[in-house]
Amino acid sequence: MNKTQRKGIVVIDDDPVSLFLTSELISHAIEEIELHTFQRANDALHFLNKSSGNLLVLLDLNMQVMNGWEFLDACTNFGIDVEVYILSSSVNPGDMSKAKTYAQVTKFLSKPLNTEDLVI
Amino acid sequence: MLMKTQQLSLTLGVGVQPSIEYLFSWRELGRVFPSFADDSLFPDQEVKWSTFFKKEDWEIRTASIESAISAYGYWQGIYRIQLPGEQEKSIEEYCTRLSTSDGVYYTGYIRVHENSTTPSFLSQGFYNSLRNAVERASIVAVTDTIGRWVYVNDKFCALSEYSKVECIGESFQLIQLQDQNPYNDFWDEIATGEVWRGDLCNRSKSGNYFWLDTVISPVFDQAGKIVRYLWLQTEITHKKEIELAIKQSEQFNLSVLSALRSMIAVVTFEGNLVFTNKRWLDIEETDCFFWGGSPVIGENIFERFRLLQKDENFAVQFNTAFEAIKRGDTNHITFEFACVNSISTKQWYLVSLTELVEIENRILLRFTDISSQKSVEAELESSHSKIEFLLENMRDAVFIEDTEGILTYANQTFLTEFNLNEEDIGRVSILDFVHDDCQQRLRDIHEGRMTGENELVELEFRRAAHLGPEKWYEARVTVLKEDDRIMGAQTVLRDSTEKKQLITELTHKEAQLKRSIRDLEAKNDELLQFSYIVSHNLRSSVANIIGLSGLLERSKELSGNPLTYSQLISQSAKQMDLVVRELSEILSIQNHDSSSKSLIYPQEVIMRIANDLDIANHIEFQVSHPERHYTTFKPFFESIFYNILSNASKYRSGIRPLRIRCEIEFLHGSFMIRCTDNGLGMDLKRVGDELFGMYKRFHHDKAEGRGIGLYMMKKQLEIIGGTVEYDSTPDLGTSVTIHFEDKENE
């Protein structure tokens, strides 16, 4: 993971503690990578819509106002093509199978983040 | 050439085969033959013309005239005759045939020519004309005295298919069928000089049969000796064939009669047996009609019946019938009678007597064994009475109605059930006992039945209200038919009241069960969701603690601040503690002993909550019955309004001062509380089903919400008996309407 093609990582989680934890883990593990954190999925959507390049999104599902699913649907609607890992605190079997229906979702990870799982 | 002509008179012969004869009075005759005029003692007495002829001359003359008339319709000829004491005279004779409705008449005249040169009798000219006439009309042949042909005419050749050359010199037996013809009879007869007439069957050269009506006349010479036979014949093959066919069919009729299983006999009016069929000849000793042996043609039937005559029943009926037919009162009589035969078996007979139309004074007797038929009838009768017994004693009510719907039969159970007497049958209709609600259905079915639509119908009806409490019957209606014609219907009724009640109860129970299952399923889903949500919330705190403690351990080698990590760990632990407490709170709702109810005044409770929330100045009440109280589980009631009011307080508008209007309206059996604020409001279309979901928050920017208040409120309302409705418009406000059950004020 020393050689990177990724331009950066986007973390979306409405739990501030979890968001902090995830970004700490990433920044300790990977040097020199752009890290963008969003507590509201809506804001992340705006960011992604404007940015370009190879980004990876770590997405929490259980969020208020706009949840993970709504975020994924919005990406499709806005034509945002970005790779997404789902990062959830619990694994609901229904969520697993639902995630498979989204082409952009490539991994389903459980919190806390194990940085070995990141393919950069 | 005729010097003197004097007409004698008209004469006549009558009938189908009359001799062409003339009758004269002696006086008439005397005018022509003077010697007769004076001598006659009886001038008015009539004399036959044939008297003056030799017998054979007369017959040739007559046969010739008949043939000529058949061919030409008339005959005319001239011959000479010499009467005793008279000069020879020339006679001109004319004869024709008249067919009238009375029969065939011959009419003609005789003219006497005196002093004439007419040739003698059978002169050549006369003979020729006669022969021409006869030849054209008839089949003519002449044989010698031993039967060899000396002459045959063309017609003969055509029919026999033999040429003249083949025939001449051959015996007439060439074409005769000896076994068919009475050869000896006629040959002997004509040898005596008599004319013979009869039908002869012949066979042509190619083997075809033909029948000839034949007259054979001897021809005499001057000395009176037979020299030839003249055969005058007419073909009658067609007539013979018809006769034969009739005869054959008569024989056929007889053979049919013989083959019949019935015993058939023909007797005269005196009772003499003239015919019996085979069945009677084969009569067995055990049969009632054996009468001591097979019947014999000619014996008297009454003699033969003497054994049976002892049976008065038979004797009276048979004799009466026989006499009635003899008298001509009727031409056909039948009766049945029973007798016991020699092996003590009872036999039934159908006896019929019929006058024969074709033959006078004949009666056709027919005895048919109908024992097996009778035994079937007896069986039927016994099964009828068995069925009747069953019908009368069965628990089901049974009735039969005619096409008009009128009862024609009802069993005892039916009569008892509907409180009827036997006399009511024939007067009442089933519709008289049917509840108004079911009338139309029964009428429709009756209609359908009469048009042949439904042959078997099963239905249920309620008995008429005036007959007593609600009672139901199951009816099974079967159409009754006779020869494909609908005669009515038979119905079996069974009391189905209890069954119906059971079914109603069962249906009710089933619905209840379905409802409980639905509730359970809903609860189960809810619990499943609950467990996911709770585990998620617990898990997320745990995940944070695990992650942070990992960082804390490595904080020395990493750049992070250990203090921050430990603070965050503590925060996560508190978060987890909060979730656990909420969980127990939610669980406690389900397990609360909500039966310990107390009396409250809603307005008072709500006002106190408003005070606690410090919004009492923003609330105004509108109460329909301020004095009315409500009995409920107070902690839940308080919790519900705490949630409503605190939400109103939390999500108030930033630009409008908070106003809450609280309406309380007591109704019959329930009351309504509606709290309307002027706060932020929500887009309910977006929120949808999740409004009451766990950990659902809709105002992310405002205030600290846990997303659990409305979930709890819903659960509490379910327990104390109430429903909630939300109405909200973003930036206008929210209106919460709650209906409470109030059984005490029902």
The total of helices of chain B stands at 21
- On the 0 to 100 scale, the average pLDDT of chain B is 79
Query: Helical residue percent of chain B?
Result: 25-40%
Instruction: Estimate what percentage of residues of chain B fall within beta strands.
Output: 25-35%
Cα-atom radius of gyration of chain B: 66 Å
Provide the spatial order of strands within the biggest beta sheet of chain A.
2-1-3-4-5
What value does the average pLDDT of chain A take?
Answer: 86
Oligomer class: heterodimer
- Describe the sheet with the most strands of chain B: 5 strands, antiparallel
**Cα-based radius of gyration of chain A, to the nearest Å:** 13 Å
Q: What structural category do the secondary elements of chain A indicate?
A: alpha/beta
Major sheet details of chain A: 5 strands, parallel
Structure description:
The complex is a heterodimer of chains A (about 120) and B (about 750). Chain A is of the alpha/beta class. Helix content of chain A is about 35%, strand content about 20%. Chain A has a 5-stranded parallel beta sheet. In chain A, helix 2 (about 40-50) runs parallel beside helix 3 (about 70-80). The longest helix of chain A is centred in the N-terminal third of the chain and has 14 residues, at about 15-30. Chain B is an alpha+beta fold and about 750 residues long. Chain B has 21 helices and 28 strands. In chain B, helix 3 (about 55-70) crosses helix 4, helix 18 packs across helix 19 (about 635-650) and helix 19 packs antiparallel against helix 21. Residues about 1-15 and about 115-125 of chain B have low confidence and may be disordered. The interface of A and B includes residues 22, 111 and 113 of A.
